[in-house]
Each structure stands twice: as structure tokens, then as C-alpha cells.
Amino acid sequence: MNAARLVNGILWRMEKFFSRTRIRWFKTLYINFRTLPFSQAIRLPIYIYGHVKFYCLSGKIVIFGPISRGMIKFGYQQGSFSAPTRSAMILLDQGTELIFNGPCMFDFDYAVRLTGKSNVNIGAHVVFGHDVKIYSEESITIGDYCRVAFGSCFIDTNYHYSIELSNGAVRKKSAPIEIGRYNWIGNTSTIMKGTRTPEGTIIASKGFLNKNYVKLGEGGTNIVLAGSPANIVQKGYARILCLEMEKNINEWFATHPGEKECLAGDLSHDYRVNDAYRDLFNRI
After folding, report:
1. Is the pLDDT of residue 270 over 60?
2. ω before 229 within 30° of 0 (cis)?
3. Which end of the chain is more exposed for a tag (fewer CB within 10 A), N or C?
4. Which residues contact 258 (CB under 8 A, 6 or more apart)?
5. pLDDT at 227 over 70
6. Cβ of 151: how many Cβ atoms within 10 Å?
């Protein structure tokens, strides 16, 4: 029995090791020294994992706050929801800026395409799942501690104009996107131009957002959005980010198999974040 457990453990570690995306050192060095000031680039704050095509790196990457090695990870495999298809790309046209305000992780098969005078501003401790796309011609802001599930897309432009034939009106093709702090964006959601969300928003999977939900929610936080186009369906909900609290809730349900609801207020943890959550960004 012990021998079988030992062999199983060894094989599991081998499977885990060979299934991970690896750091690509040449591309890591290239993107750091191509886009950052030398004083920052020498510390290698950006790590590139797995396959990626650099179409253009003429724009700037800006990092605010303390600099640490590997604090920004592109292509870092976080889960096992899919396998890489080698479709990751980065395009930063001249005059564009990609701004980071702290640690950030992109899973594999991401696309970051900044054109025109785009400014994309990403908060601290933001996580993007695999196959997430960011297409910008104007401005996209994503607040601290947001999590974006696989297959989602941010796009602040229509890329082309349309004309209203009755009066000849042509509307602007782009508008800023502003995502509040602590947002949880469900898989395969689309965030269109002009979208604004308040702090603590939960977006159900396959949501299509194209409105100012800060205004629609009358300035309130912790709303739940669902549908296409998305509407407010619940208020007063938040995703649990505290890893200890999540562990305690799992244990509670395991010991209370007949229960469908746990009163988490009885658990002595803040539902948001703690050091254990932040430590996830220090993995290499």
C-alpha cells in the first residue's frame, strides 16, 4: 500500500511538472529590455511563459509601485481547465501604454492588442484566466483584486464606424471601460465600450456588458450582473477571496453534508484577501 502511494505520488509530480508552461528566457529578457526603463528591466519584473508572438512592442509598459522579479506573468498556467493552443499574442503600437499597479497574472493563450492612443491600466493582484483578450484603442481600467475567468474579452472599440441612414449621424467608435475593484468576471463574458462597473461586482458567465452599471445601480456596490445585454439581477453579494475562509467553508460543508447553506459570519475571516492570497503571485 505504501509503495503504491509512493509511486502514485511520484507519477503525480511528474505529470504536474511536464504539464506546466515553462519560462521562455529569451522572450522574457526581450520584453523587459524592449519596453521598460533599464533600471526596471534589469530586475526582470515581467516573465513570459509558453508560446507567444510579439507582433509589435513599440508602445510602453509602465509599472508603478515596488518592483520584484516575475511580478507580472504572461502565460502562467494557473489551472487545468484547458490545454494551450499556442495562440498568445502581444501587440503594443507606438504611443500606447500598458500600465501595471502591482502583481498580475495572465494564463495561457491571452491576447493583448493596444492600438491608436490606447491606455490600459491594470490594478494590483489581478488574475486573468486562459484565452482572455484585451483589445483597446482608447482606455481600459481594471481595478485591484479583480479575477477574470477564461474566454472573456474586453474591447473598448467597434474598430469601424456605422452611419444612421435616416439622418447621417456617425457615432464615435470607441469609449472607455472602467472595471471596479474586486470584480469577479465569469467565463466567456464580453465587456464592451462604455462599460462601467462598481466595486465588488459579480458577472455571470457569458455576460454581455455595454452599460454604465455604476449609474444603473445608483452608486451601490456588490451587484450581480447576468444576461445579454447584462442587467442587475441581485444586490449585496461578493466573491470570497480569502483562502483560509474558503478552506473553512469547504470543511464545514464536508462535515455537514445535508446542509445547503453555511452562515459564513460565524467564521473568523474577512471574505476579501489576505497574505495567503497575495502569495499566489509569488510562485514561479
Report:
1. yes
2. yes
3. N
4. none
5. yes
6. 20
Give the DSSP letter of residue 150: T
For residues 71 and 45, the answer to whether their CB atoms sit within 8 Å is yes
The ranges assigned to domains in the chain are: 20-235, 243-282
Q: What is the mean pLDDT of the chain?
A: 91
Confidence (pTM): 0.90
Pick the CATH number of 20-235 from 2.40.128, 2.40.240, 2.160.10, 3.40.50: 2.160.10
Q: What are phi and psi of 249, to 5 degrees?
A: -65, -40
Q: Please, are residues 75 and 61 in contact by the beta-carbon 8 Å criterion?
A: no
List pLDDT tens digits, range 127-169.
Answer: 999 999 999 999 999 999 999 999 999 999 999 999 999 999 9
- Using a 10 angstrom Cβ sphere, with 0-12 exposed, 13-18 middle and 19 or more buried, the burial of residue 256 is exposed
Does the pLDDT at position 200 exceed 70? yes
Report d(CA 236, CA 210) in Å as an integer: 22
Dist CA 143 CA 2 (whole Å) = 48
- Residue 189, judged by CB atoms within 10 A of its CB (0-12, 13-18, 19+), counts as buried
The letter for the amino acid at 148 is V
